[in-house]
């Protein structure tokens, strides 16, 4: 049952984005392309089969009458729609109940080939799922439905599916790259995410997978629960947000085999609270990782004036230092401290330094945290680095003060020159 389809597009942006922007960093941007399609709901409501039409509209009286007359609850119309496949995604719970009691096939598939329980999960119809699981649908369908319900952050549906026997590890399956959206799906709160993670862990889901997902959705309570269940604080994160997997055939072709660590993702997405939890649990504050292959919306400060990834602070420094942009399939290797300094996040910088992060450790092309702080323009971060023992870099064509000057931070540049940096 399709209303709108969102195609998850994984695009290599090097040399492809806005004309006139030079040498883009070789990262991958994960975006969403919305494509309007013919409404299957309208097809259902205009079906030549009365029972299909009444089921799609949620007309309980007409559906009841048709069934009493002996209409086949599994009839399929000229479009390939069945009554149950049309009623489920629309949330017509009572109609779904009547059809199932009349003998409708609980494993019936929509014309797109999705089992009705999966279609209900895609469209966040927890009450419909509750009716369906009472009739014991195929367990493989339950697993796929769980993956979709977790993707959508539908806590009620997740609990129902787990209680019905859905394999708890199935939540970590990355569903197809065609992502449907529905008006029925609401943005989940952090509390709803926490309920989902608690339910998954209680049923035996892998704590590392739960931790990865909780870091991606920015759910601190979920991170706590996963760590308490034994998750490795150094686990890698292969999703960004609840819907977008970092891995895909396109990414694999680019050779991106390694995923960023949970700590780097937490720092990169501005979640210092989650970063603190990970460090307290034993995550190495100095461990190098590939960078997150995109920047969250709003992270890049100059996104209105230049191409999306060319605005990336790290790439700006690389270009100004003459090092050149990173080319695919590579991604820059960064430390959590480097990411925090790029973002000008002084609280997280201080937390990482107190946990033992090296203020002088270079990253890609000899970049140091002082270079990153110079680019971000944060005097507080520069002070924190010097207090922790940062020393002016002795090698490299560009000094931090020169990076600050070329980034438009003249006062900071003067301050850095006074310190010999």
Give a structural overview.
By secondary structure, the chain is mainly alpha-helical. Helices cover 45% and strands 7% of the residues. The strands form three sheets. It has a three-stranded antiparallel sheet with strand order 2-1-3. Helix 6 (116-122) runs parallel beside helix 8, helix 9 runs parallel beside helix 10 (190-202) and helix 12 runs parallel beside helix 15. The longest helix is centred in the middle third of the chain and has 14 residues, at 139-152. The protein is elongated. The chain starts with a strand and ends with a helix.
| Main sheet characteristics | 3 strands, antiparallel
Fraction of residues in helices? 40-55%
Query: Rg to the nearest angstrom?
Result: 26 Å
Mean pLDDT: 79
Distance between the termini: 61 Å
Number of strands: 7
Report the uncertain regions. Answer: 1-39, 176-180, 247-255, 295-314, 319-329
* Structure annotation, total helices: 22
Element-by-element helix/strand order: EEHHHHHHHHHEHHHEEHHHEHEHHHHHH
Structural class: mainly alpha
Shape: elongated
How would you write the strand order of the largest sheet? 2-1-3
SS strand fraction: 5-15%
Which key terms come to mind for this protein?
3-stranded antiparallel sheet, single chain, mainly alpha, two-stranded antiparallel ribbon, 421 residues
How are the secondary structure elements laid out?
Elements: E1 4-12, E2 28-36, H1 40-45, H2 50-57, H3 60-68, H4 83-87, H5 93-101, H6 116-122, H7 126-133, H8 139-152, H9 155-163, E3 178-181, H10 190-202, H11 207-217, H12 220-228, E4 239-240, E5 244-245, H13 249-254, H14 262-268, H15 272-280, E6 289-290, H16 313-320, E7 333-334, H17 336-343, H18 346-354, H19 369-376, H20 379-387, H21 400-406, H22 410-418
């Amino acid at each position: 049952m399709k209303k709108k389809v969102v195609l998850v597009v994984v695009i290599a942006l090097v040399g492809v984005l806005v004309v006139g922007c030079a040498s883009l960093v070789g990262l991958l941007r994960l975006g969403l392309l919305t494509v309007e399609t013919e409404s299957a709901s309208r097809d259902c409501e205009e079906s030549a089969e009365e029972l299909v039409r009444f089921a799609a509209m949620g007309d309980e009286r007409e559906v009841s009458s048709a069934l009493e007359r002996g209409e086949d609850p599994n009839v399929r119309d000229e479009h390939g729609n069945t009554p149950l496949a049309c009623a489920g995604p629309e949330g017509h719970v009572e109609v779904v109940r009547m059809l199932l009691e009349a003998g409708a096939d609980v494993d019936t598939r929509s014309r797109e080939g999705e089992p009705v329980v999966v279609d209900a999960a895609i469209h966040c119809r927890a009450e419909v799922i509750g009716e369906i699981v009472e009739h014991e649908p195929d367990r493989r369908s339950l697993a796929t439905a769980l993956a979709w319900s977790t993707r959508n952050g539908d806590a009620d549906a997740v609990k129902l599916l787990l209680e019905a026997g859905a394999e708890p590890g199935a939540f970590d399956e990355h569903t197809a790259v065609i992502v449907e959206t529905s008006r029925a799906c609401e943005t989940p709160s952090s509390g709803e995410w926490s309920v989902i993670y608690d339910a998954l862990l209680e049923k035996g889901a892998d704590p590392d997978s739960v931790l990865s997902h909780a870091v991606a959705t920015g759910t601190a309570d979920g991170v706590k629960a996963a760590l308490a269940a034994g998750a490795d604080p150094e686990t890698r994160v292969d999703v960004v947000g609840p819907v977008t997997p970092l891995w895909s055939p396109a990414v694999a072709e680019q050779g991106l085999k390694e995923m960023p660590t949970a700590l780097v993702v937490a720092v990169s997405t501005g979640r210092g609270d989650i970063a603190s939890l990970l460090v307290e649990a034993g995550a190495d504050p100095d461990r190098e990782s590939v960078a997150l292959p995109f920047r969250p919306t709003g992270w890049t400060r100059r996104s209105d004036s230049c191409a999306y990834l060319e605005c990336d602070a790290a790439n700006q420094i690389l270009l100004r230092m003459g090092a050149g942009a990173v080319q695919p399939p590579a991604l820059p290797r960064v430390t959590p401290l480097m990411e925090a300094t790029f973002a000008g996040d002084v609280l997280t910088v201080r937390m990482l330094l107190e946990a033992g992060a090296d203020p002088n450790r270079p990253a890609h092309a000899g970049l140091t945290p002082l270079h990153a702080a110079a680019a971000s323009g944060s005097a507080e971060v520069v002070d924190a680095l010097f207090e922790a023992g940062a020393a002016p870099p002795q090698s490299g064509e560009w000094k931090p003060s020169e990076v600050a000057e070329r980034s438009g931070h003249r006062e900071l540049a003067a301050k850095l020159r006074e310190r010999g940096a």
